[in-house]
Amino acid sequence: MRFIDLDDFNPDPNWVVRADSVTNQLLAAANINDVHQIIDSNEALWGELKVALLSLSHDKCWYSEAKDKYSYLHVDHFRPKKAAFGIDKVDYGGYWWLAFDWRNYRVCGGVGNVNKRDKFAVSRNKAIIPTDVWQDEIIYFLDPCEELDVLKITFNSNGEIMPIHNIGWHYEQADYTIKCLKLNCKKLKEARKDVWVKCATLVLETQKLIQEDALNSSAYKKGQIKEKLKQLREFVKPKSEFSATARACLKSTGIEWVMSIAA
């Protein structure tokens, strides 16, 4: 997971007008059945933003950083539309009034989206109606659009995503998110492990070349070092799959020049 800055996103003005119109219909609906019917009748609307939203993440899932290891990509409603099940598996009510608010959209791989469904546990200040301030909620899910949330997870050499803290609220959030989105499913772990191994191998090869060059410098060795540094930088670029895993690998070395690439 890497931070996705929604401030960089400007949806098509015509889309916003149409979305706002549907939201006004929702707010004027007589009952919850009408609300659900309006949502279902306009479900194609959020799909229109999929390509534009994907451009923010270089065509990657916002949660897993996978392009195809996590199956077909969906536009996910971060706060679910019709129901929101808490830790106790009780439905505390969905966020139907945010169904056509693009700020509530995230791009998610099919595996995670299907498993997430209507799970959305809130610790405090659950919003029930449109006038409630949902921004004040204390929620369990980590949000890729919140810069602090991205810092609450890390990766290990087995390709596993894990909480960066062992106890406390940040641990609970990370653990909940990992499990609810199946972020440690087999294909993801294998793909992340492959990235880790490749990065670790490059680090060892580069470090050896640097030590050899210090004893007997040559243009050839410098060229090799330059090429391997280029490869390492490629792994941590935002456009690369599992770049957060690559960064975690580089930071784990404790070697100053390696960590500078991950910065």
Overall pLDDT confidence: 95
Strand content bin = 5-15%
Shape, principal axes of CA atoms:
elongated
Q: What's the gyration radius in Å?
A: 22 Å
Tell me about the largest β-sheet: 2 strands, antiparallel
Number of helices: 11
Span between N and C termini?
Answer: 15 Å
List the domain count as a whole number.
2
Order of helices and strands: HHHHEEHEEHEEHHHHH
Structural class: mainly alpha
List keywords for this structure.
mainly alpha; 11 helices; 2 domains; 263 residues; elongated
How is the secondary structure organized here?
Blueprint: H1 13-28, H2 32-41, H3 44-47, H4 50-55, E1 73-77, E2 105-109, H5 110-116, E3 122-124, E4 138-139, H6 147-150, E5 153-155, E6 161-163, H7 169-180, H8 186-215, H9 219-236, H10 243-252, H11 256-262
Antiparallel strand pairs: 1-2, 3-4, 5-6
Descriptive overview:
With 263 residues, the protein is mainly α. The protein is 47% helix and 8% strand. The protein has 11 helices and 6 strands. The strands form 3 sheets. Strands 1-2 form a two-stranded antiparallel sheet. Strands 3-4 form a two-stranded antiparallel ribbon. Strands 5-6 form a two-stranded antiparallel ribbon. Helix 8 runs antiparallel to helix 9 and helix 8 packs across helix 10. The longest helix is centred in the C-terminal third of the chain and has 30 residues. The mean pLDDT is 95.
Short description:
With 263 residues, the chain is mainly alpha-helical. The protein has eleven helices and six strands. The protein has two domains: 6-180, no CATH class; 186-262.
